[in-house]
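Researcher: I'm comparing several assemblies side by side, and this is the next one on my list. It has 525 residues spread over two chains. Same procedure as the others: predict the full complex and return the structure.
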Amino acid sequence: MITLQNVTKTYKGGIVALKDVSVEIGKGEFVFVVGPSGSGKSTLMRLLTREEPPDDGEIWVAGKNLKTLKRWKVPLLRREIGYVFQDFKLLASKTVGENVAFALEVIGKPRQIINKRVPEVLDLVGLSDKHDAYPHELSGGQQQRVSIARAFVNAPRIMLCDEPTGNLDPQTSVGIMKLLDRINRTGATVVMATHDQQIVDSMRRRVIELESGVVVRDQSRGVYGYGG
Amino acid sequence: MSARWAYLLREAVTGLGRNLLMTIAVILSVFVSLTLLGSSILFQDQVDVATDEWYGKIEVSIFLCDGRNCDAITPEQEEQLREELANDPLVREVFYESKGEAYESFKEMFKDQPDFVESVGPEALPASFRVKMEDPREFSAIYDKFKARPGVEEVVDQRETLRPIFAFIEKVRLGALVVAVVQLGAACVLIVNTIRVAAFARREQTAIMKLVGASNWYIRLPFVLEGVFAGLVGALLAWGVLLLAVPLITDSLQQTIQFMPFIGIEEAAAVGPLLLLGGVIIAGLSSLIALRRFLDV
């Protein structure tokens, strides 16, 4: 589903964000990407959504070679990917239902499909009763559920989650992880960048560890630090 | 209406409302520049209308000697001149104006100034051949041919008398055009800035749209529609003002300058489509330029 071959990304000023990274992530996998700040996690995510091109190496996502992907086809790539942010990025002027529907509206889905999919996905994240609430009326955990609903409403094959529990307390985080696990079980590939040792240790999924842009560990059923 | 179009229109309208002052500035600026551009076109129309009318009427005059400044023309010389003119391929038509006829038309032309007419006797005006040319631009050929003939006092291209008027109109037209172009440039800059501000105000929403895979035109179109809408309103205002102003101005001019034909509401109406098209294209292009970098993939 996701393949990186000898990918290198250097920013202006010679900062090496990723160096010769080769990773293969299969369909339906659940993968943690761990490492300290500045280790290249965010760069990896941005490369996968084609927000930036790599300097070197090849990247395939959902069967598309990002190197040869035409500019106008980038939106089609992104429709295969659900993206969850650390800070939710909900639109404050829209209700929960509108925020989720927005993701379908702007890719031109017909109204009947929107009216069907939005309640379904809100039910999946456990927020059926919050359809008409505004983001500021919700707790952090609830807002993150809305953001996950928005990412998943178009049934993407890949979910990219950038520190989704970074702003949440441990108990709320557990709920979010259960939700992501459930989404993973529907067949979606989940890639989650995180600092959260407790979560990684308790989930026992594949762990890819980056340090200064280099993959220093790739371990199935791993834990956050060494010694597992 | 599909969700897609409903969304685009809603976005454009809320965008305009959110930024009302800037929108008004854009509309006014487009309005002023297109009014000037339209005026410049109408000045040209005015010149064309007057030229067509006058060049059809106006002839080359070959004034004949009556013995005051040169030896009076003999009937033989006069007859030969008439024959040559009638057979000349450059000449379409020739007729003779006697001293008496010249005086009559002089009295008619200056009937509002009887004192002036009094001061000029019936003998003061020379007889002449009035020549209509096949092509009025061939004046110099006629001039060279007949200037030195015995009995010919002067060969005059009557169009010369209109040159100063046309030169003046041309200057005004150029002035309007220059100001119009400068003002159009200002309007473009203003549109670019307005659209940038609008895009910046909605950058969160735009970022989300990009990440969920909205196509580029879908992200851009509301902004471009905003610009185009403002441009269209400005162009409509410009057209409206020209439709009102042109008949008012030319009607009052017509009363003082009766011998000149003037343009009217038809000509003012005819520039409308051009102004609308210009407003839309200028605003649309400016908006696209504004978005080119800001909303890159």
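Model: For your comparison table: Residues 155 and 176 of chain A are 18 Å apart (CA to CA).
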